[in-house]
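Budget justification note: compute hours in this period were largely spent on complex prediction jobs such as the one shown. Inputs:
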Amino acid sequence: MQFTSETTEQGVTERGFDLHVEGERVPGILWLPEGATGPRPLLLLCHGGMQHKRVDTILAKARSFVRHLGYACISIDNPGHGERASEAELAQARALRGATSLPPIDPGRMKQLAARVARAVGEWKAVLDAAQALPEVGDGPVGWWGLSMGTAIGVPFVAGEPRVRAAVLGLAGVRNEEFGRLARQITVPAMVMCQWDDEVAPRDSVLALFDALGSSDKTLHANPGRHVQVPPYERQAWEEFFARHLGRASSPPAPGA
Amino acid sequence: MQFTSETTEQGVTERGFDLHVEGERVPGILWLPEGATGPRPLLLLCHGGMQHKRVDTILAKARSFVRHLGYACISIDNPGHGERASEAELAQARALRGATSLPPIDPGRMKQLAARVARAVGEWKAVLDAAQALPEVGDGPVGWWGLSMGTAIGVPFVAGEPRVRAAVLGLAGVRNEEFGRLARQITVPAMVMCQWDDEVAPRDSVLALFDALGSSDKTLHANPGRHVQVPPYERQAWEEFFARHLGRASSPPAPGA
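Corresponding output:
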């Protein structure tokens, strides 16, 4: 993990990094409380399709998790996204920015996605290894937050990664038997997000994901609206979910301490 | 509304009352912040079947809504419950206390329930009128919280009561066309609770209630477990839901004020 930049704003230090994984450069960001030392919970924030490591919703979550809970947060550009996207992919992402409805995923793109998911799972493991080697992150509990493509990657990743202790998933459904089998292997506490009028991940397939998860402690939040219209107030629910299952890095000092 | 008792504990004043509605005595409880004056949001807490106005879950909610949000809260014994239950009904309620699974509702009981729901809706309207006439309650925004039988009563009540601005419903499904029609008339923000393995209100019927609600702002929380196993952490979600839609009675004074 080679750090390439560092800035601090309102108590949150943001460090850009590069990690080389199987011949590819994986650019990422690590957020930490300013001056952080010692181990703390680590949250892996996995962006969705046509997004990137510093898309506004990821950035806002990272900052609030760091400020409110004292966590470390990490985001990377997944294969084919952000700094790793082709000109054509960037143009498509730009064209769909601000759209309230997304086109269906065609079979060609689905096949490409499957190959990228397999690669991304390995990258996230390498990122987690590298992050936990830092003394200011350490081997505290790990959480996964990823919707849509972040769940396509998250389900195989979390199913095979015992360090992850809690996961927010959703906006993605059970599309095949293998995915259902992996979902059943997940036994850590999970929150699943479902958009009731989702044009990309149909409601019933997302309910099937919730049903399939092997977790005894799981909770589903469903809201009206299309794929990209998750209500902003759910961020607070995610914070409470992770605080409940991963704890907080530290409490503010007691008065007079 | 004749007050029959008053106690104050940890900043919460609890007043027992009787209200006479169409020839029957309706006993209830009003909770307020100690020394409350002036209008504030009012929450109507409607207990479920075989429960009563001061069942532990209602009492805990009332106290926390008063303490955390400064609300007024009201609960009554619904027809055939609490002080209005027969010896046989009390014995049945005692027998089922602590049960993790409830028996199905037979057709005879369903018919009795329908008659009681109609009566309860009128009683809640009378209770709301009387409460709003108190200067320490006033005509602030009103919320409804009621699961299971509290939704059987709540859907017709909220559909016909423009003073209600937000409702927590659930653990009850759309059982007939009339109920679905009333649900579609509800347009205020709503949260629906669904128990994934509900033996009383099957999952699909509760999802149908969520679907039927006419509210553009609605959210579903589903959790594994049977009818009576709603996770305790959802109380915080209800608090945030009402705070979002009804506001808070007052903020703590600014530092130095």
